[in-house]
Amino acid sequence: MRGQLLAAVDASPLGTLLAMLCAAHVVWTLLRLLGLPWAPLIPPRTARWAAAFAVAANWLFLVAR
């Protein structure tokens, strides 16, 4: 739902959160690739678990709805 944040949140709040986190990850990665020293580093294992949890929670939300 391009440009319709409230409609996206209404349709799938966890999916919207996941999309926002992916966008933040892109920015974060670009900062690290540009060599900015203050760009924080998230351990890969933590990021994988967080992503898996978000996807599973989104599926559960969609099934329950």
In words, what does this structure look like?
- By secondary structure, the chain is mainly α.
- It has one domain (5-64).
- Helix content is 75%, strand content 0%.
- The protein is built from three helices and no strands.
- The chain has helices at residues 5-11, 13-33, 44-64.
- Helix 1 (5-11) packs across helix 2 (13-33) and helix 2 packs antiparallel against helix 3.
- The longest helix has 21 residues, at 13-33.
- It is flat and about 45 Å long.
- It starts with a helix and ends with a helix.
Major β-sheet profile = none
Task: Look at the structure and give the mean pLDDT.
Answer: 80
Strands, total number: 0
Structural class: mainly alpha
Round the Cα radius of gyration to an integer and report it.
Answer: 14 Å
Residue windows where pLDDT falls under 50 for at least 5 positions: none
Order of helices and strands: HHH
- Number of continuous helical runs: 3
Strand content: under 5%
Q: Give the overall silhouette.
A: flat
